[in-house]
Design brief:
Number of helices: 4
Strand order of the largest sheet: 1-2-5-6-9
Order of helices and strands: EHEHEEEHEEEEH
Number of strands: 9
Oligomer: single chain
Helix content: 10-25%
Distance between the termini: 22 Å
Strand content: 25-35%
Largest sheet: 5 strands, parallel
Length: 198
């Protein structure tokens, strides 16, 4: 956890079966410390369990907001928030070219629905399909594509079309000439939120 002048920081490296629960717990801990804003770091997050997205997004939106849509055989199903809950403090999400799948769904939901959101980093991967994994008796497994996922407003972000989510502030993570390897994206996120908090 990083804390700068009432800024909370939460990094999600992948979406495991308990990620939503862990995120909610950490968010509660940060809010008890009276944070005024939040950085969610989704860089290099390849996705994972799609069912964890709802738990991460739920605390930030009122009931009935479309989180994402699933298109299967040209039929669309809208996945909506079910809790009566919402935050209104500024949020920055850090993304890059390896932010994919479930991590893109979270990013897109905030981008299209949250009142005070800034995306910082590089354009995301653009994985707009949902895959299922089948384990074979031989011990190997294979994945196959079953459906498309669309953003809450119905956009398909697959590489084949628009190709991912473009950040509000495009910036490389490191300066090749900086021997200290300063995280420029994180630094930018902090300066944006410090300005909003002041």
């Amino acid at each position: 956890d990083i804390k700068y002048k009432n800024i909370g920081y939460l990094e999600i490296t992948s979406f495991y079966a308990n990620t939503g629960e862990q995120f909610t717990k950490k968010l509660d801990e940060l809010e008890k410390q009276n944070i005024k804003s939040l950085i969610i770091d989704l860089r290099d997050n390849p996705g994972g369990h799609l069912n964890q997205v709802d738990q991460i997004v739920e605390p930030f939106f009122k009931k009935g907001v479309v989180i994402y849509q699933v298109e299967s055989n040209k039929k669309k199903t809208k996945i909506k928030t079910t809790r009566k809950d919402s935050r209104n403090y500024p949020v920055v999400i850090l993304i890059n070219e390896n932010t994919a799948s479930a991590a893109e769904i979270v990013t897109a939901c905030f981008d299209e629905n949250y009142s005070d959101i800034t995306l910082v980093g590089r354009r995301t991967y653009g994985k707009g399909t949902i895959q299922k994994e089948v384990n074979l008796t031989s011990g190997s497994s294979y994945k196959y594509t079953t459906d498309k996922w669309l953003t809450s407003k119905g956009k398909w972000l697959d590489k084949a079309t628009s190709g991912g989510i473009v950040p509000d502030v495009e910036l490389d993570r490191y300066d090749v000439n900086d021997l200290n390897n300063t995280d420029l994206q994180l630094q930018k996120a902090v300066s944006i939120l410090n300005e909003k908090n002041s």
